[in-house]
Amino acid sequence: MDILYILIPLSVVLALVxxxxxxxxxxxxxxxxxxxxxxxxxxxx
Length: 45
Known about the structure:
Blueprint: H1 4-27, H2 34-43
């Protein structure tokens, strides 16, 4: 039962880190123009 006192806060912290990383990627524009990159690869000579 004592392990839950460690695992629950650890999982909350991990979820917040993942959410922060996703928010950072969206804020920095990592997901802008996803289709354009695929077309650029196909049209490249």
